[in-house]
Amino acid sequence: MASYVINILPFSSPTCPLHSEPKKPSNLHFLGNSLCQQPVNLTSCKSQIQPVLAAINVEEKVEGEIGKEKPKFRWVEIGPNIPEEQKQAISQLPFKMTKRCKALMRQIICFNDKKGSLPGLLSAWVKIMKPRRKDWLSILKELNKMEHPLYLEVAEIALLEESFEANVRDYTKIIHFYGMNNQLEEAERTRLAMEERGFVSDQVTLTAMIHMYSKAGNLTLAEETFEELKLLGQPLDRRSYGSMIMAYIRAGMPEKGEMILREMDAQEIRAGSEVYKALLRAYSIVGDADGAQRVFDAIQLAGIPPDDRTCAVLLNAYGMAGQSQNAYATFENMWRAGIEPSDRCVALVLAAYEKENKLIQALDFLMGLEREKLIIGKEASEVLAEWFGRLGVVKEVELVLREYATGCETDLGSAGQSACDRFSVLLRRRIFHIRLRGALLTSEANLHWVAGTVLPASISE
């Protein structure tokens, strides 16, 4: 029909004359080159051909739109001829899951692009099964549990479905998910979409944003969001404060984090133990013994009982600061408090003595441990072995080791034991400490090191 119209149009005699004013291009250019080259104004023409042309125009536009439209999803029940992996996943679906939810889960597990689009699948499910909010939540919970790659896409599509009855918390969960995966742009886009749909960011949403910015190392955005959080006019909870403290810790600014901790104490809000310990580690890493001690005291005031790991972090701070006396005092305090020190704690005290070149005090410390029947482990032995090597007194140590290894083969084990293993056994013997100490003091190579050291009047058992 279209080609017929094109051929007869130049020879037809319309009942109305053509306008003499400037010709306007016709909306029929797509019909053929002959019309495109000589535009004709047919707006006021009452030819019998006009309805036919209009019909062709509309028909071809509709056909073009249909051609561009994505094929709709065709709901077909999943049969037995599927891969074993998919069968296994389907068999593990919860027994109490409703039939409508299991029907969708089977489709999602076996979904591929050839079957259509995911929005089409969910739209078909909504139309056929008429789900309610609890059905959507059941689907999302199971997809999250399975760590299914389509979880997030299904969740975002669900937000737009009326039957899902989306609220602020649903958007917050997606924002938090993006934040956990450091997908800042997607999280910000989700928050923007939430606010465009009339939802207001609340304390939980903004806290999730702060946590995300903190993990990404973007302190500026974290601070801006924290100020926005304060403008809500609601009392902040421990999570909101804790997220900002962690942001300062990750930015290498524990002092500002401690200021927020004091602000929390003023409002009688206790931070989580993980926040206290993270702040303690931040001070310990840089060797700020005063800051570490303040946080350690705050931990106890908050009612969090310290353990050997917490004490080890404080010992490390004193060791890095070169305060061996305070390190030893901390060790004694934890011992009196009933906290059994680990081998790492012993090693940290020895490292603190090493930093100040206090070998005699270190040996006295080891003798005290022997009296308390505390076993010296590999880490503490390695600290001593490396220390002796740097002092150049390895020969003296080897002499004492050889002397006692001969008479202690049963305790020392095989001849192939390492020096650290032999240290571990021999350092438990008080007589070994005394002989080793005497060997070091009489060594000419070590006389310059012990000069000026105040020695005890006598050395005896």
Give a structural overview.
- Pfam families: PPR, PPR_long.
- PPR repeats lie at residues 202-236, 237-271, 272-306, 307-341.
- InterPro entries: PPR_rpt (IPR002885), PROP1-like_PPR_dom (IPR033443), TPR-like_helical_dom_sf (IPR011990).
- The chain has 461 residues and is mainly α.
- The protein has 3 domains: 2-68, no CATH class; 84-382, Serine Threonine Protein Phosphatase 5, Tetratricopeptide repeat; 383-461, no CATH class.
- Helices cover 65% and strands 0% of the residues.
- Helix 13 (238-250) packs antiparallel against helix 14 (254-266) and helix 19 runs antiparallel to helix 20.
- It is elongated, with a radius of gyration of 40 Å.
Ordered list of secondary-structure elements with their pairings:
Elements: H1 2-8, H2 33-37, H3 49-68, H4 84-91, H5 99-109, H6 118-129, H7 133-146, H8 151-159, H9 168-180, H10 184-196, H11 203-216, H12 219-230, H13 238-250, H14 254-266, H15 273-285, H16 289-301, H17 308-320, H18 324-336, H19 343-355, H20 359-371, H21 378-391, H22 394-407, H23 409-412, H24 419-426, H25 430-442, H26 447-450
PPR repeats: 202-236, 237-271, 272-306, 307-341
Domain PROP1-like PPR: 259-388
Pfam family, one: PPR
Ends apart, CA distance between termini: 119 Å
Low-confidence stretches: 1-70, 443-461
Indicate the proportion of strand residues. under 5%
Q: Quick one: biggest sheet?
A: none
CATH C-level class of the largest domain:
Mainly Alpha
Shape: elongated
**Helical amount:** 55-70%
Number of domains: 3
Secondary-structure element pattern, one letter each: HHHHHHHHHHHHHHHHHHHHHHHHHH
Alpha-carbon Rg, integer: 40 Å
The whole-number mean of residue pLDDT values reads 78
CATH architecture field of the largest domain? Alpha Horseshoe
Looking at CATH, which topology of the largest domain would you report? Serine Threonine Protein Phosphatase 5, Tetratricopeptide repeat
| CATH evolutionary superfamily of the largest domain | Tetratricopeptide repeat domain
Number of strands: 0
Number of helical elements: 26
SSE-based structural type: mainly alpha
Domain PROP1-like PPR: 259-388
Pfam families: PPR, PPR_long
Protein name: PROP1-like PPR domain-containing protein
Keywords: Repeat
